Amino acid sequence: MVLPDGWRDQTMNVFHLPDASGRKDVAFVVTRDYDTPLDDVGAYADAQQTAFKRQFPAYKPLARETVTIDGRPGLMLDYQWRSDKTLLRQRQAMVRLDDAMLVFTLNARAEDFERHIPAWTAILSSFVVMPPAPDDGDAQAAPSEVLPHVFALSAKTRVLRVYPDLRAACERISAREVESHDWVFFASDGSPLAPTIVQRSRHGLFKADGRYELRPDPGYSGLELRRRLNAVTAVEGVPPLLTMQDIEAHLRLQRADGTSS
After folding, report:
1. Which InterPro entries match (predicted)?
2. How far apart are CA 192 and CA 146, in angstroms?
């Protein structure tokens, strides 16, 4: 089944393991969060933990660590809380997948949780993202123009800036902003760029801005540039990519040429 652009999969997958008495105390849940404005999995985990403190009585964080899910970088949270008189423990793993944050959750009574960890590990290690079906029409398209330009999208203001090249982008957006995950970068063909910190910024009395470089990011799992454009509030362009219409037309050409954007 193929759906047009813009349709979202809101499926929630819930799996229960009843105990001997038939109670469904153990659950494994897979959800997709399309509404979060956060692309960075660390920032998303921070927001989750803040929400847990408000929502869960007697919330207590137990662990936080990095994980890899189908080759994608993610984070895992362990915590416990009380539901009435029952002490529950939950473990969440989250990873960015296309235009959603994919969240895996294991829920069980605290005293039973440890014996379900092998199942959790086996499930996550077996998770594989199916590749999209190829578009036969794309392979026959004529090559499009390759530009040195760089797109920078502000996570805070949703302003999309266009810079003439990598050097200009790195000079005009401070390392402090990059270290705070305030910007997402893309090459002119729409492919993601990852900021690599060369020298971290100094804070305090002797504060100084650091340095970073932009490099291709083959492991990127966030929302592609073409699908972010609807949320852009303003464009600060340079020739020949001055307006949103210019950018959309350019990215359509890249897509027709078989480039992901």
Report:
1. DcrB/EagT6, Mog1/PsbP_a/b/a-sand
2. 15
Q: Is the dihedral of CA 168, 169, 172, 174 positive or negative?
A: negative
CB atoms within 10 A of CB 231: 11
Q: Where are the alpha helices (DSSP H) in the chain?
A: 41-55, 117-126, 166-172, 175-179, 244-256
pTM over 0.70: no
Give the largest Cα separation in the chain, rounded. Answer: 69
Edge-to-edge strand ranges of the sheet holding 150-154 = 211-216, 192-199, 183-187, 150-154, 159-163, 234-236
State the Cα–Cα distance between residues 75 and 56, nearest whole angstrom: 20
**CB neighbourhood size of 170 (10 A):** 21
Domains and CATH numbers, the chain: 13-126 (3.40.1000.10), 138-256 (no CATH)
Handedness of CA 230, 236, 242, 247 (dihedral sign): negative
Question: What is the rounded CA–CA span in Å between residue 214 and residue 16?
Answer: 45
pLDDT at 4 over 90: no
* Percent of residues, the chain, with pLDDT higher than 90: 49
